[in-house]
Amino acid sequence: MKVRQLEIENFRGISAGNVEFADNTLLVGGNNVGKSTVCEALDLVLGPERLNRRPVVDEHDFHRSLYVDEDKNSIPIVIRAILIELSDEALRRFGGHLRRWNDVDQTFVDELNDGADHSDDEGVVWALPVSFRARYDAAEDDFEADTYFEHPLPEPDDLDEERALSLGQGRDRFTRTHKRLCGFVYLRALRTGSRALGLQRGSLLDTVLRLSEEGSAEMWMETLRQMRDLDPSIGAIPDLELLLTQIRERAGGFVRLADGEDATAFFASDLTREHLREVVRLFVATGPSDHPVPFNRQGMGTVNLLVFALLTLIADLKEQQSVIFAMEEPEIALPPHTQRRVTRFVKREMGQAIVTSHSPYVIEQFEPNEIVMLSHDHASAVDGAPIDPAGIKLKSYRTQRRQFSEAILSRGVIVVEGETEASIIPVAAAVLELSDPVYVHPDLAGITVFTANGDGDVPRWAPIFRTLGKVPFGMVDKQDPPYTGDNGTALTSFEEFWESTVKGVEDLIVAQVPTAVLRRFLDSAVQLSDFPVHQATYDATVGDADLAGIALKVLKARKGDAYGYAALLIEHCQGRDELPEFLVIALERINEVLMPKLPATETAEDSASEVTEESE
């Protein structure tokens, strides 16, 4: 079973949203775009234990905390999910609630005028629409919530008033037993430890126990009996025995107690299974020590790997292909090689993996058509669909996968031809930021620098990033001959494109910075251990007229980001007027395109705050 589509109304930061899912889906977007909200929405619809948590929703789960309108009518939360690829058992159990779904057009066939004629078309499958609904109940002064089948819906004339006014408005309930057939498991990010390795309802350990069907009821009864019959009991400690005796003597003067020493006692819990679920903890001994301690005293990396081990158990118990598994930010406390392993495992072993991440090591495990870009507009509407891979060459994607993964998380991309250009842009932006209170650094603005494989490779990335919904910019040395053919056509996809007047970025920056900057640079560079003494000679007696030639020799001898000489030169610029004009023009134009227009009275601090909100 797989989730194909999710609609959200009035839930948290989302006023309205529609997200389409691939077979395996990576949800990406800036902070606060709605990734966690989408996962929480899935849990509300499909999580077997989610409705048992109290409260199911509260005021802040309603968009802008509005749960009644000006006329005191309830404003409900509605979350609808469409499930496809149902198991044979699900087809039998849910037969009366299924609809024919066109998985190509993402529409229900019965909504077409001639739908019956298309029920067996290619790509048309059975789908199960279900929903979560919540609202404020004024009569009870509380919130009510439940899950329902969305089809078939009763005719209004067939409903009595009570059912028509109910939360489900006559819909049949989608119960916890029904949800277990979906096999939905949600691994939250920051709550991984307590929710996964405790025994609370809905935790991963609880899921393993329930799926194993090996007498969990008897386990709880026997555990509680043994705790009750502890020998010696907790109260057998001498100091506690004295305290219990004093309690019996003092309380006996006011309350009629049972006869004997057993009238008062100490136990480790309330001796109920619910309390035991809350207090029982997994203990683990990790090498080189052999002393077991509670799992939450282990390092976060160890805790997350224990969680990973439980996931393999769940995959086995659920016969692998029946699990819909949602996971938030697996990169937290995991090294890169483990991030890759966890991601590959859930993609391979679960029926459907839905993952949120900011890590390139996770992102690079997904193909372009498995990546869903979430966008959040100013009206709090969220939209997301798998990337259309038609404009992306898989060879290009795979050879630049790591950089591509970073670019996916950005708002805009600056495509440059080499490492030297990539190294000087953030440094130039930092200098510009210090001298211009309205300028916003690309890191804060959500703009990434992408290094192509030479100047001939720059143009073809423009349409690719346009396809991804990014704003692409391009920057190259002087081209002789100029771009023609496909490359010339591709340039039109850049929002802005800058071509230098000289061949070589080293020539450009040496020619466009003041002599004072060149001297400060050489005074600093000559002290470095890898200064190219065989290519250039410099000391403080060198005249100004010779500085440009020496600096150019040094930069060409130490090209690239690994040496960092070009970035060091730009770092010695002390304001906008000392920066190369070519870089200033490009950076300020990028800022103008992507940054919101600010009122004249707004401060730089206000600007940074607004940019952060915009990027999120």
TrEMBL record:
Top-rank lineage group of the source organism: Bacteria
Residue span, Endonuclease GajA/Old nuclease/RecF-like AAA domain: 1-79, 280-363
Which residues belong to any copy of the OLD protein-like TOPRIM domain? 409-477
Matches recorded under InterPro entries: AAA_GajA/Old/RecF-like, Bact_Antivir_Def_Nuclease, P-loop_NTPase, TOPRIM_OLD
One Pfam match, given by its short name, reads OLD-like_TOPRIM
The name on file for this protein is Recombination protein F
